Amino acid sequence: MMLQYFENLESGINNAIKENPESASARKRYTIEIARLGKRLYSDTDRKAWAGALVPFDLLNTMGVTSCYAEFMASVLVSTDIGMELLENAEQTGYASDTCGYHRAIIGAAHKCLMPIPEFLISTTSPCTGGQAVLENLARLFKRDLFVIHIPQDESDQSVNFLADQIEDMVEFVANHTGSPLDKNKQCKAIENTNKAREVMSDVYNLAKQVPSPANGRDLSNFGIVMPLFFGTEAAVEIAQFYRDEFKSRINANNSGVPGESLRLMWLQNRIQFKNTLVKMLESEYKAAIVIDELNDITWDPIDPNDPYVGLARRSISSPLHGTAKRRIKHIIELAEAYRIDGAINPCHWGCRQGTGARGLIDSSMKEIGVPVLNLEVDCVDRRNFAEGQLITRIEAFMEMIESHPSPWKK
Amino acid sequence: MEDKSKLIGFTCAYTPLALIDAAGFVPYRILPMGDWPDQAGQILHENLCPHIKRILDRAMQDDIPDLSGIVFMNSCDAMRRLSDAWQKVRPNDNTVLIDLPISKDDRSVSFFADELNRFAERLSQWGGDDIRPEGVENSIGRYNELAIHLNELKKRVNLGTLKDGSTRLQAIYNKAVTEPIENVLELIKQIAGEPDVIADNALPIYIFGNVLPDPEVFTLFESCGARIVGEDLCTGSRMINVIEIENNDKSLDGFKGLARATLSRPACARTIDPSNPGKMIHDVVEKAKASNARGVIGHIIKFCDPYLARLPSVREALKKEGLSFLLLEGDCTMRSIGQHKTRIEAFIEMLR
């Protein structure tokens, strides 16, 4: 069923582009690549692995292992017709409804045999304890080997080296399962691709900073968190280049992502993964553009293609998903300033202790720099309790407040 | 250090108490007790572990004794958020967040040993004695002595021959992590001299989970007809247990032995053995069977992901072994457990 879904997704977009070549947007190219990844995950041919979100996918791609993190697949599953059924299934098997919806969806899918059985699993302690537990559960359910990576909390040399060593061990673990060691030439090429993608993504983000921004509220949703799945491949570079070209062309043509942009917003943590009208409403009624998602940023330096482990370790530790709230808040404030935002929306994904747990701390720190934050109470994958009307009312009140609120960047 | 009564706050059962002791401090566990207004949710989020929120509520109400410093273990998302929030609520406190590896392989042990070294340096900066290997060894010995005495008491609780049974034992556990070790040893030695009481016909129950520090909760269990014959709680036997330094580690400098022993202690659900996924589930079943319990109670505080994620499998595994299971979710207050009284009574009744 899911294989069919991804095949339809790819062919549908390709047909649309064929019929109207001018509709070939960067977002469509990006979605096609996601569909291809989905197809590979559900194929009978590829070696597969389930992993934590901060695993270096560059190396897995290089070693011929098709992999993704469980939350990514959850976000796809809940957008299908059976999404809510999966959540219910997990709850019926005893999974508490106040745990993370992403994780419930995955467990429900696994019990319904809708998750491809991997050759092995690699979990990471970050971003969250819940995700770690889910991968352990999947390893037990699928009776597959589990490799665990502890991502240390800070960027001290001791922590970086500890993680670099674990990544090296991971490569050995993968090689033992695939029977093929990591080819050093392929490794170099892959890291070069990663560095190229990094550079172009950085250009994309810099373009999105422009006032008005060439980005609208949908262009880069989930971009920063999904792109790592393609790291190491040429596809990652191509996707980033499509975005760069599209944004440049919009800027040259004086077309902003949201025509008549009057307010600029930041979206914190993750997007609402099922269909809803909130972003459209923000754009059409308030000319408000979501110009930056918290996770859309380059937080790491280029990686040495010949000796990548330390660089890969630094990249994982630098993720905005990881570490103390203090570090996260510093990053959010830097983004707020760089993108000159008027306000931020925090969906406060119900069940996320890691992200939502810092809600109050983020709120008060943003107030100090004069940027209001709207905290919603949403399960980003479970639409059963999605009270859209109430949320719209709250957003309307927030937007009216922002409109009358002096911009912190025009002092 | 001149004042030996100085306290170091801690909040997680993985905290290396012997290290604090070796620096001449007294470990003080900030237990989630007291009836304070719910305010922590405003700083964090309501959907966060009540253990953390109750501790933060205590801090916000200034219900914390003078501490020379406080150590947070990076054991789970909630604990990390507590460390974040503490700095906001009590910005002048000395704090340190110690990274706690998820497993106990050699690399993790070495990394954790470095973390313990960092903690030792911090203790010294906070006015503690310089920590020397023989000092750590001595402190481990003191805590092992305490653990052995506590185990003896536990045996009497299991047999039902200790007056006030598990209620009293929990009060002693609380004392053991908030007062100087000598006070506790003295009390335990007094109790050791007390004659056994005659065991009643209460039903043997095994209990596992996370945070359950209020002794009154155990009174409630006993009033429902249960006798706790085995327990695995982070505010109970998991807090203080015998630490064994492996022979290979004894010859090594630094904290490797303590690191390995700490990572090898009875595990909270957040710890993983990659070679045996779901080991925690297996452990619950085996310990319950070994205790000869007729039923198992799991007490989990709400929003605790490591436990919540494993509960469906625990339930299934216990069922396979023919062990009845009652799950209680609480928020660290007596009030929340009190609401379950009828369920506990019915559970005990059903098993008779």
Description:
The complex is a heterodimer of chains A (411) and B (352). By secondary structure, chain A is of the alpha/beta class. Chain A has a domain at 2-185: Rossmann fold. Chain A has 17 helices and 8 strands. Chain A starts with a helix and ends in an 8-residue tail after the last helix. Chain B has helices at residues 17-22, 40-43, 50-60, 77-89, 106-125, 133-159, 165-176, 181-192, 215-223, 247-250, 256-264, 279-290, 305-320, 334-338, 341-351, and strands at 7-10, 26-29, 69-74, 95-99, 203-209, 226-232, 295-301, 324-330. In chain B, strand 5 (203-209), helix 9 (215-223) and strand 6 (226-232) form a beta-alpha-beta unit. Chain B is globular. Chain B is 49% helix and 13% strand. In chain B, the strands form 2 sheets. Chain B has a 4-stranded parallel sheet with strand order 2-1-3-4, with helices on both faces. At the A-B interface, helix 7, strand 4, helix 8, helix 15 and helix 16 of A face helix 2, helix 4, helix 5 and helix 13 of B.
Tertiary shape of chain A: globular
* Approximate strand percentage of chain A: 5-15%
User: In total, how many beta strands of chain A?
Assistant: 8
Secondary structure category of chain B: alpha/beta
- The strand order across the widest sheet of chain A is 2-1-3-4
The first-to-last residue Cα distance of chain B is: 56 Å
Structural class of chain A: alpha/beta
CATH architecture of the domain at 7-129 in chain B: 3-Layer(aba) Sandwich
Pair with the most extensive interface?
A-B, 49 and 47 residues
State the helix count of chain B. 15
In the CATH hierarchy, what is the architecture of the domain at 2-185 in chain A at level 2? 3-Layer(aba) Sandwich
CATH class of the domain at 2-185 in chain A: Alpha Beta
Gyration radius of chain A, in Å: 21 Å
Sheet with most strands of chain B: 4 strands, parallel
Terminal Cα span of chain A? 55 Å
- Oligomer state equals heterodimer
Order of helices and strands of chain A: HHEHEHHHEHEHHHHEHEHHEHHEH
Shape of chain B: globular
Strand order of the largest sheet of chain B: 2-1-3-4
What's the helical proportion of residues of chain B? 40-55%
Mean pLDDT of chain A: 96
